[in-house]
User: Which sequence fits this backbone?
């Protein structure tokens, strides 16, 4: 930066556009004009360096696509792996009630948390291992979880998000061309509500994800208030700001395999961005994420139309390049694998640096 002229420094591009130069300050002594301009440039440079680091180092790389369930031709965005959903059927009052019940869980003693939510992987309370602490704990429940605590709103909220999630999965399957195995058989899926306390902290300008991961088809998170989140997509870390009362939808690893790689995905759950100003309030910041996933006995495989070997060979022999190209596109890019083995691996190893699906690519 030292080799740039003052005018160039004042018009340096930023993530938010070009910084315009301020109007010139009158000078009584023309001899000091160059010195004053340099001083102004240095002052501006210092000011830019004082701006909050996360806003500069983690800009929103893509705008957050908006999708309405009331659209006449519903075609959910699939290019990024995430979008915000409007015109859904979930009332904000239900979300508020569910959050109030969720907050009460974290005020329980450690013994009560373990007693009321015993571990039945992946269900139960997570926070009694040596990697956890008071500000990093979570509860994983489903709509059928039995507990002595009054959690009627949270369970109703779970069912409401599940209904929306199933709609999204059906629309995604239609848009990219695979058969939705959940459409007529409710035994083919399960829904997990992950209630977490400040698992996603931002430190040294980088997202920190300390919560457990779990495979899912789609994830849904109702936005009660204005909040930024970091997502680890196939394109890297991105920051998004969903609208209040919208639902942040993330496409998961199972959906990517089902679509034969046509759908982009998000790895893990959204990470709330909490600045240093929120440190004293971390214990009161929670996220409620509904993951539509699969039963343990499931097998994951691409759901693409299969072509017979003799048909493929016949097309190649006759030199039909268009059909051969189509056949190449329809070849499975993932091999089939056990959901239980995969889920156990990503849950316990907390894989983030490397895509856990890489070992299953053909």
Assistant:
């Amino acid at each position: 930066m030292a080799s740039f002229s003052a005018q160039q420094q004042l018009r340096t591009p930023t993530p938010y556009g070009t910084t315009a130069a301020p109007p010139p300050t009158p000078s009584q002594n023309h001899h000091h004009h160059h010195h004053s301009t340099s001083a102004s440039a240095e002052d501006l440079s210092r000011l830019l360096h004082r701006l909050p680091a996360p806003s500069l180092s983690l800009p929103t790389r893509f705008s957050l696509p908006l999708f309405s369930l009331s659209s006449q031709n519903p075609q959910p965005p699939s290019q990024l792996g995430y979008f915000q959903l409007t015109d859904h059927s979930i009332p904000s009052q239900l979300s508020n009630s569910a959050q109030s019940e969720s907050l009460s869980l974290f005020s329980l003693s450690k013994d009560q948390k373990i007693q009321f939510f015993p571990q039945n992987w992946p269900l139960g309370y997570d926070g009694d291992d040596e990697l956890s602490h008071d500000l990093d704990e979570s509860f994983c429940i489903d709509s059928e979880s039995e507990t002595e605590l009054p959690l009627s709103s949270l369970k109703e909220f779970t069912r409401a998000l599940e209904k929306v999630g199933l709609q999204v999965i059906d629309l995604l399957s239609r848009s990219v061309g695979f058969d939705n195995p959940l459409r007529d058989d409710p035994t083919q899926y399960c829904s997990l509500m992950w209630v977490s306390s400040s698992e996603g902290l931002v430190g040294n300008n980088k997202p920190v994800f300390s919560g457990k991961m779990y495979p899912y088809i789609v994830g849904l998170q109702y936005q009660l208030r204005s909040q930024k989140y970091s997502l680890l997509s196939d394109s890297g870390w991105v920051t998004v700001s969903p609208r209040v009362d919208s639902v942040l939808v993330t496409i998961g690893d199972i959906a990517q395999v089902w679509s034969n790689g046509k759908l982009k995905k998000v790895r893990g759950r959204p990470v709330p961005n909490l600045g240093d100003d929120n440190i004293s309030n971390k214990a009161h910041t929670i996220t409620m994420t509904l993951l539509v996933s699969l039963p343990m006995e499931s097998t994951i495989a691409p759901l693409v139309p299969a072509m017979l070997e003799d048909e493929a060979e016949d097309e190649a022999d006759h030199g039909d390049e268009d059909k051969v190209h189509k056949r190449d596109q329809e070849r499975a890019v993932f091999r089939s694998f056990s959901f239980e083995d995969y889920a156990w691996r990503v849950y316990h190893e907390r894989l983030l640096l490397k895509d856990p699906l890489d070992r299953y690519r053909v």
Remarks:
- The radius of gyration is 25 Å.
- The first helix runs from residue 6 to 10.
- The mean pLDDT is 76.
- The first strand starts at residue 13 and ends at 14.
